[in-house]
Structure formats: C-alpha cells, structure tokens
Amino acid sequence: MLAATYRWVEEQVELMLNLATSTHPKTFLRDCLNDPFGIAQHWKRKVQVQLINRSAYSVAEKDEDSDISGLCMQPEQTVDGKYHLIVNQCGYLPRDYFTLLHELGHYLQRTDDELIIRRTIFNNIAMSKEAEEAACNLFASKALMPDELIAEIGDFHKASTATTLYTRSQASRPAVARRIAALLDNGWVTILDPTNSLKVRAFADDHREYGLPLELELRAVERFREQEQSKKRLEEYTFTDSYTAQEEHDTKIHQVNVSIAPSWSGRRNTFMYIIVNEGMKSDSSMHEG
C-alpha cells in the first residue's frame, strides 16, 4: 500500500472510531474490550447483526464485496430495509469479533457523509474498495486493541506486551501480532506455535512474509529455553542478535534487538511471541514470573 493511501486509512479510521464512540459513548469501547457481540444489542436500531454458521453462507459467498468471514448487506438487499452485518462464525470467538467490527466499519463508511466524501478522492473503484477494506481492518484492530490499552500495558517493543495484550483483549494472537508490528519503526513480529512452526510473521510496513527462514526465531527459542532452565517461570527474554540478508548485489548484516515471551494455551502448550526490532540495541535481560 502506498504511503499516502496508508495515511488516508489512518485518518479514516480515527474518524470511524470517533463516530462509533460518539454514537454509543457508554457502550462501544466497553463492548469492544469485553464482549463485542454486545454491539448487536446496542446498535440494533441502526443495524441488524446476524450470526450464522459457515455452512449456511451461500448468499454471502456470491457477493463480490464479501469474503468467507462476513458481509455488510445494504438496505436494498434486506427485507426490513436495514443494514445487516453478517458474521460467518468460524468457531473461534476472537476471529468472529474481528469480523463483526470489520463489517461495522463498512457500515460506518457507507452511511456517514464525511466518510463517504473522503472515499471519493480515489481515481477508480478498485482503489476505493482497497482503501475501504484496509480501513475496516484497522478499525477492527484498533477497536479491539485501543492505543490507550497498549500504552497502559507497556513498551510495545517487548514481547511481554504482546502476550499481555492478548490476555487483556478480545483479539486473536495473529491480530495482536499485526497490531504490534504496525507500531514498530522497523522490524517484525513472529508467532511460533507449540511445535515451533510459523503461525504469523507480520512486518512494520504491513506486509506478511511466510517464506523466510526461521533461523533467528529458532535461536530466540533456544536461548529462551536455556535461560528458563534455571528459572521457575521466565516471562520474557531480550537480547541482541544479527541476521544476514541479500540486498541487490551485496550481503548485509543487520543488528537487531530480539524480545521473546511465551503465550500460554492450556497448561502445557505454549505459543511464542518474538519481536525483532532493527536499529535498537540493548543488553540481554530477562523478566521472571
């Protein structure tokens, strides 16, 4: 995405968040942090929320504006003449919450005059749709994980902040990774599953890469396990490392600061958040539970 378009998206999302909060000042933020499905009750005069099973999603699959997760149906498409927000439930609540807020983002952008006018700056329909989708994704992300909550938790360069954000929000682990990555100046966030396989790798510039080697991340896990052996429960480990990358006709060594923290799933299964910050240096440190 072009830098100018991303700035437009950020500005659009701030307006969307302000609009949603001012529309329901007592409930919107509370719903997002505790039970996003509460939106169905609190917004029912304006929109109808429908939670359906994936197998029943035949109509939405045929609509060009929809994906497998949800759909924002316009009044001319519904019997009651209201907007309908369709959430195709996948059985994983954080994903369904994100979908609901994404579709609410479509509703806001299609009904508020200022948001509608701002979308007219794009030269063609494809660019307008891409920007609208990006705004809906960022709106859902920021609604579930507000800036204020992240600031309250602590330094977003530390992996323990990601694990705490996951436990204190209604967002999924991948959504947390992408939210934190977007705050970094230069670097990325990786999630490894309990088998040390790649689940997510999200970069600061908003792209995702799954084909790069996991050498840096696996070294981080090894060093974490080494430190953990002498501790009752290690919550975070931070150290300086490097990786080599081929850039045009030259090979460059990048010095990075690496922070790793476990995200528990049950008593034995552990996901790992690994935050790689380029351009930052620090001594090795650890945080014990």
From TrEMBL:
Limits of the IrrE N-terminal-like domain: 63-180
InterPro entries for this protein: IrrE_HExxH
Superkingdom classification of source: Bacteria
One Pfam family linked to the record: Peptidase_M78
The name this protein goes by in its record: Putative Zn peptidase
Protein species of origin: Bifidobacterium saguini DSM 23967
